[in-house]
Amino acid sequence: MVREQRLIIWTVIILVVTGIICIAVRIQTLHKSCLPRGERVWRLTYDIVLPTLEGGKAYIAIPDNTPQSRIFRETFSHQGIWMDILRTKRTLGREAIIVPLVGSEQGRFVAQFDIRVKTEG
After folding, report:
1. Which residue in 36, 33, 114, 111 sits closest to 69, CA to CA?
2. In the prediction, which pLDDT does 110 show?
3. How far apart, in whole angstroms, are the C-alpha atoms of residue 88 and residue 97?
4. Where are the domains of the chain?
């Protein structure tokens, strides 16, 4: 009985110490840069307020992936407007088309892009 209790206590101690070590290693690896040499991360933010555009629409150029850059996160917020993303031959890239909603006093378009950029050839 006493031997089984000691075994349980030692097992719990070993598990707790192992857990603490695993957490410490995880924290250390999260703080290190995960980017390969010659790469950087840029954040591009658009924040556009539009007055009432009765029957109008606007086209906004937005970033696209290239051999030197890769978008790994993008978010869009559009209050008081309808938005869609187009890829056209005319621009050879992407653009957001925004149209105000009927009855909207003002529209706001917010877009955020996190882009990984290669700085070396």
Report:
1. 114
2. 93
3. 12
4. 1-32, 39-118
